[in-house]
Amino acid sequence: xxxxxxxxxxxxxxxxxxxxxxxxxxxxxxxxxxxxxxxxxxxxxxxxxxxxxxxxxxxxxxxxxxxxxxxxxxxxxxxxxxxxxxxxxxxxxxxxxxxxxxxxxxxxx
Length: 109
Description:
By secondary structure, this protein is mainly beta. About 10% of the residues lie in helices and about 35% in strands.
């Protein structure tokens, strides 16, 4: 067996806390850095609706499709692009609400 270990240092990636605020190219990232961009929002439905994007070969949450596609085109290399969604129930509320987080990860252009 061969084990390969590597470490990621803080300067190896850059982070965008709110993807929806990014209209242009991210300024604080370097070429080929790992880029993480987030969207966080609440909803009353537990399941998001996704559409498949042929250009990037990923499923994108339909509600934020235009914003995510624009962000990807401006900032991401097409290979190693991933979109993750995390949905959690918000506790202690009378009506069931959900906290959602969408994470786009890619290599910066």
